[in-house]
Amino acid sequence: MTYASLRAGRGPNALVVEALGVLGGVRGRALDVGAGPLNDTRFLLELGFSVEAVDTDPCTLALAAEWRHPRLRVVHADVRDVPVAAGAYSFMVAIHVLPFLPRADVRRVAAALAGGLAAGGVLCCTFFGPEDAWAGRPGRTFLRAPEAGALFPRLEPVVLREDRYDGIDARDEPKHWHVVRCVFRRPTGSA
Ligand SMILES: C[S@@+](CC[C@H](N)C(=O)[O-])C[C@H]1O[C@@H](n2cnc3c(N)ncnc32)[C@H](O)[C@@H]1O
């Protein structure tokens, strides 16, 4: 069972809702990286965005095929291989996906995402901190809020906070979470 199959049909992530408040009433193109069960994608479609959803999981593709939504395009690929069009997106989501990449890849993908934001555009993303129960797993990246901020030097940090709590994972097993929640905005005056 993949994350997408376990978590389909739920509401949007709270950080996505918070980030949309930062964006205001702007719509346009959105990019959902590591879209999984498409819960955030569906919310963005309902709000009027055109959404490109990237994920390696065939389940994501299958969910989208059921919907046949005219403003949804699913890219069944590794985010590291997907070119991000410069300045194309007003809104970007990368929830619980960047921590699953090695640090050098996180840096590269973060730079690509930042470059894809339109002026005034908003990116929300999460990282896992070093106190997370999964910390130390090979091939993954764990970092604190200042390190997350440093990945996006040309964006303005609007939300940059660390939350620690005991919760459950996708399989409903207990897990200690240390999550870095970020919302960045591309300044309107930037080239
Ligand atoms: C923990 S899930 C989060 C899904 C979704 N963002 C959410 O919050 O509901 C992580 C998702 O990222 C996808 N993923 C992991 N590594 C990826 C990569 N390198 N490229 C694209 N998708 C990836 C997984 O298949 C999975 O669907």
TrEMBL record:
Molecular function terms from GO: 2-polyprenyl-6-hydroxyphenol methylase activity; 3-demethylubiquinol 3-O-methyltransferase activity
Catalytic EC class: transferase
GO annotation terms (biological process): methylation
E.C. number(s) listed in UniProt: 2.1.1.222, 2.1.1.64
UniProt-listed SUPFAM superfamilies: S-adenosyl-L-methionine-dependent methyltransferases (SSF53335)
Record-linked InterPro entries: Methyltransf_25, SAM-dependent_MTases_sf
Residue ranges annotated for the Methyltransferase domain, each copy included: 31-121
Alphabetized UniProt keyword annotations: Methyltransferase, Transferase
Top-level taxon of origin: Bacteria
Name this protein carries in UniProt: Class I SAM-dependent methyltransferase
